[in-house]
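Predict the holo structure. Ligand: pyridoxal-5'-phosphate.
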Amino acid sequence: MSQTESYIPYGRQWISDDDVDAVVAVLRSDWLTQGPAIDTFEKGLSVLAGGAHAIAVSSATAALHISCLALEVGPGDSVWTSPISFVASSNCALYCGASVDFVDIDPTTMNMSVVRLKEKLISAKAAGKLPKVVIPVHFSGEPCDMEAIAGLASEFGFRIIEDASHAVGGSYLGQPVGSCDYSDITVFSFHPVKIITTAEGGAAMTRDDGLAARLHRLRTHGITRDTAAMVSEPHGPWYYEQLNLGYNYRITDIQAALGTSQLARIEFFIERRHQLADRYDDLLSGMPLRRPVRGDDRISGLHLYVIQLEEASRRLTTFNALRAANIGVNVHYIPIHTQPFYKALGFAMGDFPVAEDYYSRCISLPMHPSLTEDDQDRVIAVLREALG
Ligand SMILES: *Cc1c(COP(=O)(O)O)cnc(C)c1O
């Protein structure tokens, strides 16, 4: 029946005429990159995040990399993150020559378990191997227990980078995600499936002036034009200094203009995702699966709506039935430690059993603001038939 119906992706951007006009205006202007649209976008992000500095870059992956560098992660250091994330959350530490380890997830939220984190910190302390940085990932957009993680950071002496790629527009204990009330740096992604898009793009948010200056330099080759930061007297107006080994991780003005235009609709995007999630919650009740949990003291960005089948043995057939009906379901994520590259580093199946069990039963249903109620009804009908 459904094969002939249109394809429903699991996530997709929503581009308005205003977005198109904003991009075209930059194309007709003097600056395609390193121009005023980037400042405007960063100011908008800063407002969204309650006043934190915003450093917009070419991707969240780039933001994670320079965030690790800004916190001086290097060879001999260890960085911990969640195994249920995109590989970028852990690759960033390896780019810096550090080693990576994972903390198993909480079976209710799928976020890094604070209980496991504490246990692991206690044994790492005894072994003299405490992490330099911990990267909690706000999985699906649901903010982690940042207050508890920040408490452990002061007790055990590590720094925190929030991977908020899924949680742009969310909030935690009344403060917007990105405000960095409980972290050193927060990273956003603006990939098209995320909450707002710049095509490719990301940002690092921080309240710390020194970290902000370092992140700015690392985005553009480690170069500064700020005379106060220079080692020597400027030779003239052309003078700049390279102070660190940085990269070209700049975002373009074309992308930044799209981001500013998208940012104007972020509240609508988040509201719409919550309406759709509420409706999924109702329609799925009574089916042999677990629905995602949302805490009352925080607002999820709801990048993903993930169900877990009670019977893991039915995941593949259920997934295939949905795909056969032209419904673009997906799986988030294959646990990072089970990837061949990570197995070669010494990780093995069985290392993080809660994450592995979650992986065996999860399916991400379509979730994006332009999803319709008819689309949802199609998803539910196929799911109901498959789970019979
Ligand atoms: C998408 C994503 C990233 C990487 O984002 P890019 O902007 O594509 O580099 C990193 N972490 C998580 C959790 C993500 O979902």
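The chain has a mean pLDDT of 97. The CA atoms of residues 271 and 286 lie 25 Å apart.
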